[in-house]
Amino acid sequence: MRKENLPISAARARAIFAPWKALPAVVLAVSGGPDSVALMWLAARWRSKLRRGPRLIAVTVDHGLRQEAAREAREVKRLARRLGIEHRTLRWQGAKPTTGVPAAARAARYRLLARAAREGGAGHIATAHTRDDQAETLLMRLLRGSGVAGLAAMAAETEREGVLLLWPLLDISKAELIATLEAAGVGFADDPTNRDPAFTRPRLRALMPLLAEEGADAGTLARLASRLARANAAVEVLADGAERYLALTDRGAAAGSYDARAFAALPGEIRLRLLRRAVDRHGHEGPAELGKVEALLEALDDAVAEGQTRLKQTLAGAAISLSKGRILVQPAPPRRRRPR
Q1: Predicted structure pTM score
Q2: In the beta sheet, which residues pair with residue 315?
Q3: Is residue 83 within 8 Å of residue 41, measured between CB atoms?
């Protein structure tokens, strides 16, 4: 039998959840589908074998988009009770958008999960993204033209809404999780939107068998994401060093100010990251889009190469200027509101 069709062993579960031992509490995001139900089942079984361990709080978010969602939340609650862990159902209230529904629902979900974590004294939220999800995320970002950081896909943990998000199952396939639930006799819900071709991720999911025939199966794509994450981490270290170098060689410079010639001598990817950091640090309109930062860097590079003495642009609420041989990034004045 292939490994992908085998249940998760107790020893493997111990290895997966070992980093949680010292945590006071963890929120488990449980929708009712096979991945999240398996996460809850495995985490609860692991916790039950410990003398001391984190408090587990299962949270189901009902987005109000499907009639079945309320029933699925009740099923999760029943299973949580059987496993001896707490459960809460939170609802996405208010009007729903007519476009961009998956992104809006995802943002609402994390917002509600973060609220539940804060109320429950938990600094961590665990979600059940798998190796299959990692592969799909890589493909989605590849199609959007993401840079190295984006193609690194999902990290094992990241900060969001003031808490740490954990993805403990990124090295595990969906098939293994389903096999685990089937072996334990645990049921799960089937969300038809996961197969709805109106959305990008299900369309890519339908392509995965064809890609696998060419050698690009979920394992290979997830491995590529891992290698890109490793490369991205190395480039970030180099960018940190470059930032310190520019500050040390230009001690009188204000934050967000660089000697144009010294900046131009750095490799392109490093310049891009330093510029994006400065814009995000000093801007007030959210993270800058990669493509727009690339266009800004190209304009700065051209200006420096041609010996231009002045250049002014704005991006994401930051004002970027080239004057007297210096690049300066600072907050832009608030936009004037047009009179109604």
Answers
A1: 0.87
A2: 318
A3: yes
Terminal C-alpha separation, the chain: 69
pLDDT of residue 249: 82
At 252, give phi and psi (nearest 5°).
-85, -5
Radius of gyration of the chain measured on its C-alpha atoms: 24
Q: What is each CA distance from 45 to 8, 34, 86, 304, in whole angstroms?
A: 12, 16, 14, 61
Q: Which two tokens stand for residue 21?
A: 């031992």
Name 328's bridge partners: 257, 321
pLDDT digits (tens, 9 = 90+) for 203-212: 999 999 999 9
Q: Residue 319 carries which side chain, given as an amino acid letter?
A: A
Name residue 74's amino acid: R
Strand 157-160 versus strand 163-166 pairing type: antiparallel
Cα four-point dihedral sign 271, 277, 281, 286: positive
Phi, psi of 73 (to 5 degrees): -65, -40
- What whole-number distance in Å separates Cα of residue 300 and Cα of residue 204? 38
Phi/psi of residue 196, each to 5°? -75, 115
